[in-house]
C-alpha cells in the first residue's frame, strides 16, 4: 500500500496590533530602491494594505513568546504604516494582517520574498493603464493614483495603442522597447505593420529609421508653411499632427501635406486681397518664390513714414528708461533677472520703431506690383514696388534732340541744291577747281579725327591706370548706374554686372543667411544712392575708402566706443575682473576690417576714452595672451578703483568670426 504525499501546511495568519510590531535586523534589503516610503504610505491610505507582513515572535531567554513580533520581510510596508501612525492617520493599535513564521531562518524568508518576486512585464503595465482609461479614469487620476507624471501615463497609453501584432512581438522579445517607442509616432496600425515588414528586409532596424519611414510624406512642424497656418487652424480643418512622446520632436509632423498647402495658399490669397486694395497693378502669391525672382525688375524706392507725436514720445520714454536701467546695471555687482528681462523688452520695442511703413507714389503703384510669400520663420513677406519691363512708361525723347536728329542728312542722300556728277565713260574729263570754302573753322578729316581719338583714348587709359582710386571710383560708378538706376548708361566704361540664375535650387534658398545678407547689403547701398544720375559721381567721390567698400565708420565706432569696447572700461560688461573676451561678427572679410579697427585704436581721443595702456612695443594693442591664444589681439585698459579694487586694469582679448556664427548678446531677446 503506497503512502500519500504529505500535505503542505501554510503558516498561520492573524491581525496583530501595530504597536506590537518591531522592525527586524534580519531583513536582507539594505539599499533603498523603488518608490519612496511617503508614496507607499499614500497608496496604503488610499487602498489599504494589499500584502500582509511576514513576522516572527520575539522570545525571551526561556524561549517563551513575549507578545512582540519582529518584521523580517516587509520593512518598507512597516515604515509606511509607521509614517501613517506618526501623522495620526492610523491608530497605534490598528490591527495589521500578518503571517506568523516559526520555522526556518529569518534571513532566508526575507531573501526568498524578494528573490522569488517576479517583476511586472512593461506591456502588462501599459495594458493596465489602458484598462483604467477605458473604465473612465482620466490621465490625471491615473497619474495621481500611481505617483507618476501625466506625461508618463500618456507614454504608457500610447505604447498600449500600438498594433496588437507588434505588441505580441514585443511580449515575445521580438522587438526592443526603443523600437516599440518609435512606432508610437503614427496611430495607423496598418502603416506600422508595413514598416515592420519593410524593416525585415533591411540591414538596420534602428528606431530613427522607423520614425523616418512612418513620417515619410509628412511635414515637420518647423516648416514655414506650418508656422504660417498654425496648428489650431490645421487641426480645425481635419489635419492630424503626429507627435513623438519619447523624443524631442520640434512640434511633431503634420501628416496631410496637401491640406497644409491648401490652407497656406488660402491664407496667402486672403492677405493678397488686402494688399491689392492698396492700389497695386498686380500681386503674385506663392509659399516660396525662387531665389532671384525679382532680377531685371525695377524696384520703387518709396518713403518711410515718420513717427507720429505719440510714437515719438513713446520711443523717447523707452530710451530714457533703457538708459536709466543701463546706468543702474553699471553700478551693480549683479543684474537682477527682472531688470534683465525688462531691458530685453525695451530693446525689442525700440527696434520695432525702426521698422517704419513705406509710402509710394500712387502713379508708380499703378504700374508696379507685389510678391507675397512666406519667409523662413513663417511670417508673411510682402515685397512691394517691383515694376516689370513691359509696365515701364514709354521713353519720350527730348524735342531738341529730335530736331537735331531730323536736321542731319541721311547716309547716301544728296544735299539739297547740290548736283551729283556721275562718272562718264571714255576719256577722263579735265578736273574742275574745288569750290572756295567759307572763311572759318574747317572740319577735320575723318582719318585724322579717328587717329586723334585713338591717341586721346590711349592717354585716358594710361592716366586711369596710374590713378587706382579714380579707376576704382569709375568702376564703382558704372556698376551703380546699372544696378540702381533704370537707364544707367552715362559711363564710358563697358562694365556689365550679371547675376547667374540657378536652374535648380533647394526650397528656401532666399531665406538662407547668405541671401539675407546680400539683400540687406543691397538695400544699404540703395539708400545712399541719389535720385538724379548726374549727382551719382559727386556722391561716390564723397565716400571715404571704407564706405565705398561697404563698411561704415559707424560700425567701427560701435565696436570700439561706448556701445562696444567702452563697456568693459565702464564695467557694464565686466566688474572685478582682470581679463575678459570680446567677440566681433564680421560682415566683410577679416583682412579688410580687423586692421582698420587696430589702426583706429591709435587715435588719441579714442585712447583717452578707452583708457588704453600702450603695449611694450608702443602700439595700442598687444599680441594675444596665453589665456586666449586664439584671439586676434589684446588691449589693456585702466579701471576705476570701484570697478577693480584688486586689479587696476583689465585685459580684453578680441576675437573676430565671419557672419553666420551664433551670436550672443548680454540681453537676449525673448
TrEMBL record:
GO cellular component, one term: chromosome
GO BP terms: chromosome segregation
SUPFAM superfamilies for the chain: KorB DNA-binding domain-like (SSF109709), ParB/Sulfiredoxin (SSF110849)
Region (Disordered): 384-442
Keywords, alphabetical: Coiled coil
ParB-like N-terminal domain sequence ranges: 14-115
Ranges in a coiled coil: 308-335
InterPro entries: Chromosome_partition/occlusion, ParB/Sulfiredoxin_sf, ParB_N
Family statement drawn from the similarity comment of this UniProt entry: Belongs to the ParB family.
Record-given protein name: ParB N-terminal domain-containing protein
Amino acid at each position: 500500500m503506497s503512502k500519500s504525499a504529505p500535505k503542505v501546511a501554510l503558516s498561520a495568519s492573524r491581525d496583530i496590533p501595530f504597536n506590537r510590531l518591531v522592525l527586524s535586523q534580519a531583513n536582507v534589503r539594505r539599499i533603498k530602491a523603488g518608490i519612496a516610503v511617503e508614496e507607499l504610505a499614500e497608496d496604503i491610505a488610499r487602498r489599504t494594505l494589499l500584502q500582509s507582513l511576514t513576522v516572527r515572535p520575539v522570545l525571551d531567554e526561556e524561549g517563551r513568546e513575549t507578545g512582540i513580533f519582529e518584521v523580517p520581510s516587509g520593512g518598507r510596508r512597516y515604515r509606511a504604516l509607521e509614517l501613517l501612525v506618526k501623522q495620526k492617520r492610523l491608530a497605534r493599535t490598528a490591527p495589521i494582517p500578518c503571517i506568523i513564521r516559526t520555522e526556518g531562518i529569518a534571513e532566508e524568508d526575507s531573501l526568498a520574498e524578494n528573490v522569488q518576486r517576479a517583476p511586472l512585464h512593461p506591456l502588462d503595465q501599459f495594458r493596465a493603464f489602458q484598462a483604467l482609461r477605458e473604465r473612465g479614469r482620466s490621465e490625471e487620476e491615473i497619474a495621481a493614483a500611481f505617483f507618476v507624471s501625466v506625461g508618463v501615463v500618456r507614454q504608457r497609453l500610447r505604447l498600449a495603442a500600438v498594433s496588437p501584432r507588434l505588441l505580441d512581438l514585443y511580449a515575445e522579445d521580438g522587438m526592443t522597447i526603443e523600437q516599440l517607442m518609435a512606432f508610437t509616432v503614427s496611430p495607423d496600425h496598418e502603416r506600422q505593420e508595413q514598416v515592420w515588414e519593410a524593416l525585415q528586409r533591411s540591414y538596420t532596424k534602428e528606431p530613427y529609421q522607423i520614425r523616418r519611414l512612418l513620417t515619410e510624406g509628412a511635414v515637420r512642424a518647423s516648416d514655414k508653411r506650418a508656422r504660417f497656418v498654425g496648428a489650431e487652424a490645421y487641426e480645425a480643418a481635419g489635419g492630424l499632427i503626429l507627435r513623438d512622446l519619447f523624443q524631442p520632436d520640434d512640434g511633431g509632423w503634420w501628416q496631410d501635406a496637401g491640406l497644409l498647402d491648401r490652407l497656406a495658399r488660402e491664407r496667402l490669397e486672403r492677405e493678397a486681397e488686402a494688399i491689392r486694395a492698396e492700389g497695386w497693378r498686380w500681386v503674385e502669391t506663392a509659399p516660396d518664390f525662387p531665389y532671384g525672382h525679382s532680377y531685371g525688375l525695377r524696384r520703387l524706392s518709396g518713403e518711410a513714414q515718420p513717427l507720429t507725436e505719440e510714437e515719438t514720445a513713446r520711443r523717447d520714454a523707452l530710451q530714457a528708461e533703457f538708459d536709466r536701467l543701463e546706468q543702474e546695471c553699471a553700478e551693480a555687482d549683479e543684474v537682477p533677472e527682472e531688470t534683465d528681462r525688462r531691458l530685453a523688452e525695451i530693446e525689442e520695442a525700440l527696434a520695432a520703431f525702426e521698422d517704419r511703413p513705406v509710402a509710394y507714389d500712387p502713379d508708380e503703384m499703378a504700374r508696379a506690383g507685389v510678391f507675397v510669400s512666406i519667409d523662413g520663420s513663417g511670417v508673411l513677406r510682402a515685397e512691394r514696388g517691383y515694376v516689370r519691363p513691359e509696365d515701364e512708361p514709354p521713353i519720350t525723347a527730348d524735342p531738341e534732340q529730335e530736331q537735331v536728329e531730323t536736321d542731319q542728312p541721311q547716309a547716301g542722300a544728296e544735299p539739297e541744291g547740290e548736283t551729283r556728277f556721275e562718272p562718264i565713260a571714255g576719256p577722263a574729263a579735265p578736273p574742275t577747281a574745288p569750290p572756295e570754302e567759307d572763311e572759318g573753322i574747317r572740319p577735320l578729316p575723318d582719318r585724322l579725327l579717328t587717329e586723334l581719338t585713338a591717341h586721346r583714348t590711349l592717354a585716358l587709359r594710361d592716366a586711369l591706370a596710374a590713378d587706382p582710386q579714380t579707376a576704382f571710383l569709375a568702376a564703382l560708378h558704372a556698376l551703380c548706374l546699372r544696378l540702381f538706376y533704370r537707364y544707367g548708361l552715362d559711363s564710358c566704361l563697358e562694365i556689365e554686372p550679371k547675376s547667374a540664375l540657378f536652374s535648380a535650387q533647394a526650397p528656401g534658398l532666399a531665406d538662407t543667411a547668405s541671401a539675407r545678407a546680400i539683400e540687406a547689403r543691397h538695400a544699404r547701398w540703395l539708400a545712399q544712392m541719389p535720385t538724379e544720375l548726374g549727382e551719382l559721381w559727386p556722391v561716390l567721390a564723397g565716400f571715404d575708402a571704407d564706405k565705398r567698400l561697404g563698411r561704415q565708420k559707424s560700425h567701427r565706432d560701435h565696436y570700439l566706443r561706448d556701445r562696444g569696447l567702452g563697456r568693459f572700461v565702464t564695467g557694464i560688461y565686466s566688474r572685478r575682473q582682470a581679463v575678459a573676451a570680446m567677440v566681433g561678427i564680421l560682415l566683410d572679410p577679416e583682412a579688410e576690417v580687423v586692421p582698420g579697427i587696430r589702426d583706429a585704436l591709435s587715435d588719441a581721443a579714442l585712447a583717452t576714452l578707452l583708457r588704453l595702456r600702450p603695449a611694450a612695443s608702443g602700439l595700442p594693442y598687444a599680441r594675444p595672451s596665453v589665456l586666449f591664444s586664439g584671439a586676434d589681439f589684446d588691449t589693456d585698459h585702466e579701471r576705476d578703483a570701484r570697478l577693480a579694487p584688486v586689479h587696476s586694469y583689465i585685459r580684453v582679448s578680441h576675437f573676430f568670426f565671419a557672419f553666420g556664427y551664433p551670436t550672443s548678446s548680454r540681453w537676449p531677446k525673448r
